Amino acid sequence: MTKLFTVGVILLVQLYHGAGKTDWSIQVPDTVNVESGKSARLPCTFTHPIDDYRGNITVIWRTGNTFHGPVIFQCVLPYRESAETYTCNNLATTTDKDRYLFSGNPNDNDISIEIVNIRDSDRNEYFCRVQLEDPSHAYSSQNPINLQVNGVGKADWSIHVPDTVNTESGKSAKLPCTFTHPIDDYRGDITVIWRTGNAFNGPVIFQCVLPYQESAETYTCDNVATSTDKHHYRFSGNPNNNDISIEIINTKYGDINKYFCRVQLEDATHAYSSAKAISLQVHGPPRILSLSTKFYEDKEVAVICTVEAEPAPTITWKISSSCQPILQSLRHNPTQHLMIGEIQNITSSANYTCIAINEHGRDEKVFQYLLANSAGIPVLEKSEALKRELKPLNEAVIVLTLLCIALLILLFILGYKYRVKGKATNSTPREPNIFFAYRKLDGSETEVE
Question: How far is CA 189 from CA 116, 265, 271, in A?
C-alpha cells in the first residue's frame, strides 16, 4: 500500500511539472523605428522546453529570410550563473560586423542585438534564432522585425568619391561616386551629371536621367550631353545603391583631368555636387609620333624625335656612323604629354635611331638622313642593319619593275601585230610608180614616169 502511494505521488509530481512546461517560442516586435545616425535595439526573447538548462547558447541574426538570409550576427554564449551583462564577439563574416553588438542576457532568455550608426541601407527585415548545444534544439523567429529608418535626423546630402583613379592608356577607367540624400523612401527619377575642371561651371561630359526601377541590378542610361565625344563615357552605377559612377572607355592622355559628379532628384532644388574632385591619372608606354629633320636659316640641320608618353620618357640616340656620346636638347610639353628630343648640326649621312623609355615600356624608330655631295647627289653608307631592313623592299621593287617591263613588251608586240594586220586587210592594191631616165641626143637627161 505504501509503495502504491509513493508511485502515485511521483506520477503526480511529474505530471505537474510536465503540464507546466512551455514549448519553443520567440517574441519580437513587428517594427522598430530609429533615426539615421543613431543606434537601434532589435529585441528578441524566447522560451524553450529544456528544464534548468545550463549549457552554451548560440545566437544568430539574419536579414531578408529567416533561414536563408545573410547572417549579420552570430556568437556563442557560455552559461554564467547570475551574470547581469554579457559581451559576445560577432563571428559573422560581413564586412561591417562591428556595427552589430549583443545587448541581451541569456539568463533572461534575451538574445537582442543593437545596430550602431544606423543608415538608410539598414532598412530591412530581421530574424533571430536561438540554438542550444544539441543543434536539434533550435528555434527561429517566424515573424520579422521591420526596421524603419525615419527621415527626422537622417544624414543630410553627401557625396563620396576617391581622390585619385589610375589607369593605363587605351583601357577603361571607372570613376566611382556614391551619395546619400535626406528624402525618405524616394522613388522618383534621378538626374546624373558629370563635369570636368569645375564642380559647377566645368563642361558637362555626361548627363542622363534614371527612372526608378525597383530591385534593378543593372542600369543603362543614354548620355544626353552635347560634347562631341559623349560616347566616350557610359553609366556604370546603380541608383538603388545610391551609386552614380561612370566609366571612361578607351582612355587617352587627353582624359587626364579633374572630375566632379552631381545628383539631382525630380525637384531641382534637391541636388548636390561633389566638393572634392577625382583626379584621373593616365599612364602608358612611349609612342614615337614623328622622327624628322628641321632646317634652320643658317643652313644648320637637326633631327627631331617627338614622343607621347606618361610619365615623361627618357630619350637617347644611336648613330650608325658614330660611337661618341650624342648631345641633344630636350623639351617637355606636359599639357600635350609630349617629350621632344633634338640633335642639332647634322654634318654626315647616317641612320639616326631615337629610343624612348619609361617605366611602362619603350619605342624606337630609325631615320635615314642623306647628305648631298658637291654634285648634289645624296650619299649614304648604309649600315648592315639598314641593308637587312631594306632588302625585302628592294626585292619587291625589282620584281615589280620586271613585271612592268614585260607588260610593256607584250603591249608593243600586240600593237605591232594589229597594225600589220590592219594594213593587209584594209589597203586597196594599186600600180606601183615606175621611174626611169633616158639620155637625149643633145646629151641631156629626162626622167619619165
Answer: 31, 6, 12
